[in-house]
Amino acid sequence: MWHLASKSALLVMLISGSALADALTLKSTEIAHGEFMPKAQEFKGFGCSGGNLSPQLSWSGAPEGTEAFALLAYDPDAPSGSGWWHWQLVNIPKDVNALPGGAGDAGQKRLPESSMQMRNDYGVKGFGGACPPEGDGAHRYQFTIHALSKRLELSEDASAALTGYMVKAHSLASSTIEALYKRD
């Protein structure tokens, strides 16, 4: 009797383990979960003098039914009452699984064809780096990849709130790296 229960428990663990192995996972060679980002990811402007480069990102384990990806970068600690959108990139083709460092610079044309950068809270389309107020302490910067059930139909001037709503409404799975940044 115990032998049968042990086999059942082992089978459940094996099935769970293989399901977890296929989970959507976001990685980076430039930022790490719980670690401080380098100056390269700091905004250039608003009193900040960083490189304003989006980090290198790669992902794997997209669930069945994925038709596109969206990448959102958000600071929930910004003293705005609603956080701060640093980057919203939607309609990344389903066969793409990485973005090089600096891809968020609209002038560099390093993004996959058919993807669309939305206006960030700095007022530009593209990546806007970290720039917390001086003396404000460390802020969290959440880089989240979403596997989407469909390509999003958004106008080029869609608000950050509408973009976030549409991404979450069609997200099959997501994975986040939460990096930190503090101005000296």
What topology emerges from the helices and strands here?
Layout: H1 2-21, E1 25-27, E2 44-45, E3 48-49, E4 57-60, E5 68-75, E6 84-93, E7 98-99, E8 116-117, E9 139-148, H2 160-169, E10 171-181
Number of helices: 2
Tell the overall outline.
globular
Query: How many β-strands, per DSSP?
Result: 10
Biggest sheet statistics: 5 strands, antiparallel
Q: What's the level 1 CATH class?
A: Alpha Beta
Q: Determine the N-to-C terminus distance.
A: 64 Å
Mean pLDDT: 90
- The secondary-structure class comes to alpha+beta
Regions with little confidence, pLDDT below 50 for 5+ residues: 4-20
CATH superfamily: PEBP-like
**Estimated radius of gyration:** 19 Å
Major beta sheet, strand line-up: 8-6-5-9-10
Could you explain the architecture of this structure?
- The chain is of the alpha+beta class.
- It has a single domain (22-181), classed as PEBP-like (Phosphatidylethanolamine-binding Protein, Alpha-Beta Complex).
- The protein has helices at 2-21, 160-169; strands spanning 25-27, 44-45, 48-49, 57-60, 68-75, 84-93, 98-99, 116-117, 139-148, 171-181.
- The strands form three sheets. The chain has a five-stranded antiparallel beta sheet with strand order 8-6-5-9-10. A three-stranded antiparallel beta sheet has the order 1-4-7, with no helix packed on it.
- A hairpin with an 8-residue loop joins β5 and β6.
- The protein starts with a helix and ends with a strand.
- Mean pLDDT is 90; it is low at 4-20.
